[in-house]
What does this fold into?
Amino acid sequence: MARRVAVLLFDEVEVMDFAGPFEVFAVSGQCGGEALFDVFTVARETGPVLARNGLSINPDFGFADAPEAEILVVPGGYGTRREMHDAATLAFVQAHAARAERVLSVCTGALILGRAGLLDGLSATTHRGALHELREHAPATTVLDAARVVDNGHIVLSAGISAGIDAALHLVADLHGVEQAAETAAYMEYDWRHRSVDGTAVVKAQRAAG
It folds into this structure.
């Protein structure tokens, strides 16, 4: 059965932050004739969301009627500085993260997770221009400046923008094998190299804490 993937949207969300992982999960398995993920978008309301640079998106669900999902994607963008202080957004993320198999934060989506208290005691990364903000708003988190992907098990985080594609492929590899992730990357014509845990590009939590 395909895993459901909920992609959070909000005004001023960075386009590639949500669209990159959306594409990865949406096309995984299609070459073999079977979609491995059922991807949908969710926002506070079902009306249009204006992403960065004015791109208008129509979310599939609002917070009130969003179905449960095995994977929750929390993207970044300038809108995170508002959403990280929004009670409804934080409550939605907390509730759905608690029931999800995995949570994927892209770029400054980490600020939302930090404010929601989901990064306490974990390791994390974010866009290089927001590392200081993450340290400020998530003081109980170990921030790894050089990491591109940080895998804490339940919560996976990526650095900025295009790094979300790497993190999504990392999850595909973890859940369905490296060959499936490589096939997905090849279909997207994305120059992806599967990286083992090396302490810099891809960091496992236990390695980061050790």
